[in-house]
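Repro:
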Amino acid sequence: MRTRRLLHLDLVRSEKAGVHLTTFVVSAVSTILVTRAYLALTGYPQIGGDSGLHIAHVLPGGLLMAAGLVIGFAYIGRGPRPVAALLGGVGFGLFIDEVGKFVTADNDYFFEPAAAIMYIIFVCLVVGANVWRRRRPLTDEEKVANAAHVLVDGLAGRLPANRRREVLRTLESLGDARGARQLHDLLTTLEPRTSPLPQRLELLWHRIAEAFTRLAASRFAAAVVGALLVLQAVGAVLVVVVLWRANGSSAPVMAGTATGTVISLALAAMAWWRWRIGDRRGAVEWLQRSALASLLITQVFQFAASQFAAVVGLFVDLLLLGVVGGGLRAHDTGRASGDQVRSP
């Protein structure tokens, strides 16, 4: 008990952590792709030329990550966080892009497993954060604390109208939770303003999530999920077979890809069975496990065989996870309102 008290940090979780994490990951991955494309098109130039100096892009990456941290330290409210997530993501992308140099004795930027290493890092970051968040929803106290954080923007005259409406609905749903009514009264007296640029990043991810939720609640949801699952499974097998016939892919790559595909299809079959017995939410959860199996197993081995094919597979998996996540949100919203909601 004494050790637990020493390690207890009393950290309040942010309800926007998923949004900021998405900004961080997307900006990091985009930076890696843009950087590699630019270097390939320009013949891999070196900053410093023939002067004997070589300024690796890991250095500006570190500076951008530091800038993101400084913004988080120097400013209060929610406004700086999207900017910090964006700068930190770009900086981390520049940093992790040179992972091949860090793990090889000859500083090999073109180390083939580097793409798989980067991929595993991003997948573990996203999946770990989602699992951590799903294990325990935000408490009422944490929701009130998040609303108080929004109040900072309102007092500074930087609170957009849509964000104020969202927070007011949250506070009304908390009833007599300590501080909820007082915060509600304060927020209603504040004049909303046009969304500043940083908070438009949050709005963008909200609209994407809402689009997935609408798709999951539509009559096309089952067809979309089925098509994505079939495309993913068949595509993974075909890519490995073609590469094996062309240049002889290794047996571990083929075995890993086949194993991930079989597991993913088995989990999808379990989802179909849960759907047949009437467990709609259970079916969606099993579909989510199927997509994660493809993401964590199949695509890792795909990266070792063909980075391009793995990027396509990653895109399909992310679409599938988006539709399935929208299905979970649609189902939970339907239960809360007492309506029947169609899920994939």
